[in-house]
Amino acid sequence: MSLDADGGSGAEVAALSDKGSPGEDGFVPSALGTREHWDAVYERELQTFREFGDTGEIWFGEESMNRLIRWMQKHKIPLDASVLDIGTGNGVFLVELAKFGFSDITGIDYSPSAIQLSGSVIEKEGLSNIKLKVEDFLNLSTQLSGFHICIDKGTFDAISLNPDNAIEKRKQYVKSLSRVLKVKGFFLITSCNWTKEELLTEFSEGFELFEELPTPKFSFGGRSGNSVAALVFQKM
Ligand SMILES: C[S@@+](CC[C@H](N)C(=O)[O-])C[C@H]1O[C@@H](n2cnc3c(N)ncnc32)[C@H](O)[C@@H]1O
Questions:
Q1: Which pLDDT belongs to residue 23?
Q2: What gap in Å lies between CA 18 and CA 30, rounded to an integer?
Q3: Would you place residue 28 in the very low, low, confident or very high pLDDT band (cuts 50, 70, 90)?
Q4: How far apart are CA 199 and CA 4, in angstroms?
Q5: Domains in the chain and their CATH numbers?
Q6: Could you tell me the distance, in angstroms and rounded to a whole number, from the CA of residue 223 to the centre of ligand 1?
Q7: Which among 112, 235, 230 is positioned nearest to 174, based on CA atoms?
Q8: Ligand 1 pocket test: which of 17, 30, 110, 175 has the largest number of ligand atoms within 8 Å of its C-beta?
Q9: 206 C-alpha vs ligand 1 centroid, how far in Å?
Q10: Would strands 104-109 and 130-134 be described as parallel, antiparallel, or unpaired?
Q11: Tens-place pLDDT, residues 165-183
Q12: Pocket lining: 159 vs ligand 1, CB cutoff 6 Å
C-alpha cells in the first residue's frame, strides 16, 4: 500500500472492497477486515522499518493527525487527559500526541506486529511513557477503561469489512467504546467508508455528535462531497 494524501486510503479501501458481492450493509467483505491481513502488513512494515527506518503508512495522511490535534488544542483538552488510539497501526499518531505534550497515551492494536512496530517507532523517537498493548477492541481485557479521549483513524472502517458478521462486530465496537470512554469523554473518528449521516446512525446509542471536522471536498460528475468524514462524538 502506498498512500500519502488525505483520503488516499479511502480509495485504497474502496478498491480492495470492490471484489465480490456486498453484504447486507452494502459492504463487500475484504481481507482488510481480518487480523491476518494486518499482521502481514505490519510484519512487512516492521521489516522495512528495521532495514530503512521508514515508519510506513499514515492512514489519511499527515493532515488527518494535525486536524485531530488542532481540535484538541481548540477545545483545551488538558495535556494529562487519558487518550486511547484504537488500532494504532505503526503508532505514528501516538508519537505526534506525545510531541504535542500529551502525557497519558495508550495505543492498542490486535496485531502483535503493529504493536512491535509502534514500540520500535516510539523508541527511535526517544519517547518512553507511551503505553502499548496487543488488544482486540472487540474482545477487551478488563483493565482498559476510563479514557477521556478515544481516537479511531481507519479502524472502524477495517472492522466494517470483516468477512465474518461485520454487522455484529460493529455493534460490539460501539459496546466496547461505551466501556472504555468516560461519560462526557470524546470519540474522534476519521472514516473513508462511512458518511457523516451513516456514522451518526452507527453511534446513535449512547453518543451524540459534538462537532464535524472539515475534510477536503471532491467534486465529480456535477456532484460534490467529502471522501473522508471526521467527526467528534461525546459520550452521554
Ligand atoms: C486502516 S489501519 C489504521 C492504522 C492507524 N490507526 C493509522 O491511522 O495509521 C486499521 C488498524 O486497525 C487495526 N485493527 C483492526 N481491527 C482491530 C480490532 N478488532 N482491534 C484492534 N485493532 C484492530 C489494524 O491492525 C490496523 O492497525
A1: 66
A2: 8
A3: confident
A4: 24
A5: 31-235 (3.40.50.150)
A6: 31
A7: 235
A8: 110
A9: 23
A10: parallel
A11: 999 999 999 999 999 999 9
A12: yes
Quick one: cell of 217?
471536498
pLDDT tens-place string over residues 73-120: 999 999 999 999 999 999 999 999 999 999 999 999 999 999 999 999
Q: Please work out whether the CB of residue 107 comes within 6 Å of at least one atom of ligand 1.
A: no
Flag the least confident range among 14-23, 142-151, 179-188.
14-23
Find the length of the chain: 236
Higher pLDDT, 148 or 218: 148
136 pocket-lining for ligand 1 (C-beta < 6 Å): yes
* 158 close to ligand 1 (CB < 6 Angstrom): yes
CA 33 from centre of chain: 13
Mutational pocket test of ligand 1: of 9, 36, 109, the residue with most ligand atoms within 8 Å of the beta carbon: 109
Say how many Å lie between the CA of residue 154 and the centre of ligand 1: 6
- Please state the three-class secondary structure of the chain as a single string: CCCCCCCHHHHHHHHHCCCCCCCCCCCCCCHHHCHHHHHHHHHHHHHHHHHHCCCCCCCCHHHHHHHHHHHHHHCCCCCCCEEEEECCCCCHHHHHHHHHCCCEEEEEECCHHHHHHHHHHHHHCCCCCEEEEECCCCCCCCCCCCEEEEEEECHHHHHHCCCCCHHHHHHHHHHHHHHHEEEEEEEEEEECCCCHHHHHHHCCCCEEEEEEECCCEEEECCEEEECCEEEEEEEC
Tell me, using a 6 A CB cutoff, whether residue 137 lines ligand 1: yes
